[in-house]
Design brief:
heterodimer; A: alpha/beta; Rossmann fold; 6-stranded mixed sheet; globular; B: mainly alpha; abc type-2 transporter like fold; 2 domains; 4-stranded mixed sheet; 4 strands
Chain lengths: 507, 368
């Protein structure tokens, strides 16, 4: 057989929502197939059906000549699967995780040593063998999880958004790992929301609302990466630049100081390790200030300090003139904060979350109803209002989080990776809201791992190992690094710093 | 290493590195034992009693003396009835006794002499004591007083002896019983979290895509927590016997054997609860409400089973703690009685096998 996976008229419904709607698909052996698509378009559901973790409600699947509904145990022996939440044991060290999965896949003892060495080298986890998986940075976790999935050289490797929230350098390394560690006979199915990644696959499958709207080589769609992204967006229904509804009737009621966000020698120390070191900056009114850097550089720690969620070891910061050390709650009242980790109430439905956050931010009566209605409309939450937040797909979780963060019209907006796991159209819409709000005078500080998004920022601070290594406009940074684009500038500047340091550090 | 071995090793690493399971296994039982030892006491302390003697016969001073020196009563003498009622309402005294002014006169005339006892009925147990203590004090006084030849001798007199627990010290049966409760809590709390945790962190999804069989997952959850539970049990028994000095008249091997059967069934119930949830919080809440509370209330430790309504009595039959309480109390106080050991073991074994079977059937191997 030449096909690794054959799907015929597959459908899957979930709480009356058609997650997969009559899908027919063949995945060729020895290829890397990318599954891309809008948020909630059924990517994860499709992958789970292929691996037999979900049973189809209609239609037929044959994975590697086996029926996943009946022969799951046989299928597991030739399958490598990396779930969205990685599946690592946080209390176990890197080595122990690898050994556990090697045992669970019954890999003979003799083959292990060589295989482990190869994986350690590829993941660059050699110095961290004995570190607990829970203490690794996001990028490292992902590499380790991929390593675990690759153990035993499976015939089919299934990766569910392995690169969400991973910095560009680590993403390249992940891709390289798959390319070089996969054998000729291995088939890879990889779901992603990064278009640059999808462009590098042999075949890409575009899903929309549970249906396949394109299946073929990315090259056939467009000859350039940017063109490819535009084409995919067009297939998904197109994006029209329109003024942000949220920004339209946004009004700032507060008096503005020159620097709504000001940090002075901000520092956070854990033991003798600096998470953030001597950071000073001032973000001007209406500015979009981007914080870029690899995973574990200290971006989230900076956010949490500025929000008054953790206390700085030394130094201070001011939000709208309020001291974050002395008056953290007063400073916080000016902020809308979207955390990196999903921090809404999973047990409440979407409507419940909206109502709750509107209420704790002090909205009431007609104003509250209007805001909730607006958010529902803008972020297309209508079909999901009755669904529990924890059951939402990744992209919709992000939409809901952003909605809850801006509902009370804050003067300062802190967004920690708002667009991670969000589809390309929604990403453009997110940014149109952010831009719109900044034009109205809202001060925004944002992190992202999408280098194309860096261009939306007025100024960028490049963060590495707890320190600012460069601060400039996007164009300025590219020039400084002698690079063609932002992505190159990012890796050039980081590598330069790394080499200067001589010692390679994880954080 | 086999798959099962690898899973068990992993589970042990998680236990050692996650302080909460160590807390559940060792710190929590110690706390509970201390509470049961020093906090829970079913023996009444001295009751506060008001006294009013309207009869001024000098013979009664001996009666007054008996009240004042009794182990069970703290008496205060009043002159005024109204004041006594007020103090009873305020809770200063639990009840009072009035000796009327014709008391000795009636005895001398061989008529029935009345005594009035008023108690605070809002505390039923206590008012029972208040009813009986003054009566026995007055009887005692009467049999030793100058009037003793005036009354008739009772035809029957009971000689009471408390076997197995000579000094009716309630600790001697509460503490072994509380061991059963503690072990229930440990058995259920430890295991309710572990399957739910795998789902919550997404590791179950990864596990289910490896060569792991269902039976491996089930056994890898039983074995480590069984070992941990047994260690905790030995620790608790040690604390009871050597630190709290509870007399132990049974056999350690029998105790360990029945204990292991009990733990097997308690873990089974915990795992059954856990296998139904994909969320640790919900799992632990339901462990408390549908696992632990019924065990506490229906095990027969605090409330006797045969005074429960029929339906509840039937319900207690599926609660492993019931059998263990009955066994451990007799093992501690009366020594090994093979009949009791045998019958309880059989029931625990049946419950254990039944719950293990349900856990196996109930464990989901797919995401939905």
């Amino acid at each position: 057989m030449t096909n690794a996976v054959e799907i015929k008229n597959l459908s899957y419904t979930y709480n009356t929502i058609n997650a997969l709607d009559d899908i027919t698909l063949k995945i060729k052996k020895s290829t890397i197939t990318g599954i891309i698509g809008a948020d909630g378009s059924g990517k994860t559901t499709l992958l789970r059906n292929i691996t037999g973790l979900l049973l189809p409600k209609g239609g037929k699947i044959i994975t590697l000549d086996l029926n996943p509904s009946k022969n799951k145990e046989k299928l597991n022996k030739v399958l490598g699967y990396m779930p969205q939440k990685f599946g690592l044991y946080e209390e176990l060290s890197v080595r122990e995780n690898l050994e556990l999965y090697a045992n669970l896949k019954e890999i003979p003892k003799n083959d292990r040593k060589e295989m482990f060495e190869k994986l350690y080298n590829f993941t660059k986890l050699n110095p961290f063998k004995d570190r607990l998986a829970g203490k690794l940075s996001g990028g490292m976790k992902q590499k380790l999880a991929l390593g675990c999935a690759l153990l035993g050289q499976p015939d089919l490797l299934v990766l569910d958004e392995p690169s969400v929230g991973v910095d560009p350098i680590s993403r390249k390394e992940l891709m390289k790992m798959v390319h070089e560690l996969s054998t000729n006979k291995m088939t890879t199915v990889w779901s992603t929301s990064y278009m640059d990644e999808a462009y590098g696959f042999d075949i890409c499958v575009v899903l929309n609302k549970g249906k396949i709207i394109y299946c073929g080589t990315p090259y056939n769609l467009s000859q350039t990466q940017n063109g490819f992204e535009d084409k995919v967006i067009e297939l998904m229904g197109g994006y029209k630049e329109k003024p942000s509804l949220i920004a339209k009737d946004f009004e700032l009621s507060e008096n503005y100081p020159d620097c709504p966000v000001k940090a002075q020698n901000l520092e956070k120390k854990y033991g003798d390790f600096y998470a953030v070191k001597n950071n000073t900056f001032c973000i001007k009114k209406g500015e979009i200030f981007g914080l870029l850097g690899p995973n574990g550089a200290g971006k989230s720690t900076s956010f949490k300090m500025l929000c008054g969620l953790i206390k700085p070891s030394s130094g201070n910061a001011y939000i709208m003139g309020e001291d974050i050390v002395k008056n953290p709650s007063k400073a916080r009242s000016h902020i809308g904060y979207m955390a990196q980790k999903f921090s809404l109430y999973g047990e409440l439905d979407v409507m419940g979350n909206l109502v709750f956050f509107a209420s704790i931010y002090g909205l009431s009566g007609r104003k509250k109803e209007e805001e909730i209605k607006k958010m529902t409309e803008v972020f297309e939450l209508q079909p999901y209002l009755k669904q529990n937040a924890k059951e939402l797909s990744l992209g919709f979780k992000q939409r809901l989080s952003l909605a809850c963060a801006i509902m009370h019209q804050p003067a300062v907006l802190f967004l920690d990776e708002p667009t991670s796991g969000v589809d390309p159209i929604a990403r453009k819409e997110f940014w149109s809201h952010i831009k719109g709000l900044s034009e109205k005078g809202v001060t925004v500080m944002v992190t992202t791992h999408f280098m194309d998004e860096a261009h939306y920022c007025n100024r960028i601070s490049l963060f590495y190992a707890g320190e600012t290594i460069a601060i400039d406009t996007p164009e300025g940074l590219i020039k400084k690094a002698n690079a063609k684009n932002m992505e190159e500038a990012f890796s050039n500047l980081i590598m330069e710093t790394k080499e200067n340091e001589h010692t390679w550090r994880a954080y | 290493m086999s798959i099962l071995g690898a899973l068990i090793k992993k589970e042990f690493f998680q236990i050692i590195r996650d302080p909460s399971s160590i807390m559940i296994a060792f710190v929590m039982p110690l706390m509970l034992l201390v509470i049961y030892m020093y906090g829970v006491n079913l023996d009444t302390s001295k009751i506060k009693l008001g006294l009013k003697f309207e009869d001024n016969n000098p013979e009664l001073s001996a009666l007054m003396h008996s009240f004042n020196t009794s182990k069970y009563v703290r008496a205060s003498v009043y002159d005024n009835r109204d004041e006594m009622y007020k103090d009873l309402t305020k809770g200063k005294i639990n009840g009072f006794v009035v000796i009327p002014n014709d008391f000795t006169k009636n005895i001398l005339n061989k008529k029935t002499a009345d005594v009035q006892i008023v108690t605070d009925g809002s505390e039923v147990n206590l008012s029972n004591y208040i009813k009986s203590y003054p009566v026995s004090i007055i009887r005692q006084w009467f049999s030793e007083s100058a009037y003793k030849y005036l009354g008739k001798k009772p035809l029957i007199e009971a000689q009471i002896r408390y076997r197995y627990n000579q000094d009716i010290n309630s600790h001697h049966f509460i503490l072994p019983g509380s061991l059963a409760i503690t072990m229930t809590l440990i058995g259920m709390l430890l295991t309710t979290l572990v399957i739910a945790r795998e789902w919550e962190r997404g590791t179950m999804e990864a596990l289910l895509s490896t060569h792991v069989r269902k039976i491996d997952i089930v056994l890898s959850k039983y074995i480590p927590y069984f070992v941990l539970g047994m260690i905790s049990m030995v620790f608790n028994v040690f604390v009871c016997i050597f630190i709290f000095k509870i007399p132990f008249r049974g056999n350690f091997f029998v105790l360990l054997f029945v204990c292991s059967l009990f733990l097997f069934s308690a873990l089974g119930i915990g795992l059954f609860i856990s296998s139904n949830f994909k969320d640790q919080f919900l799992a632990s809440q339901s462990a408390l409400s549908i696992g632990f509370l019924p065990s506490l209330l229906l095990s027969g430790l605090t409330f006797p089973i045969n005074s429960m309504p029929q339906i509840l009595q039937e319900l207690t039959k599926i609660i492993p703690t019931r059998y263990f309480v009955s066994f451990i109390q007799s093992e501690f106080l009366a020594g090994t009685i093979w009949q009791i050991v045998f019958i309880n073991s059989i029931f625990l074994l049946i419950l254990g096998i039944l719950s293990a079977f349900i856990v196996y059937k109930n464990l989901k191997t797919r995401v939905e």
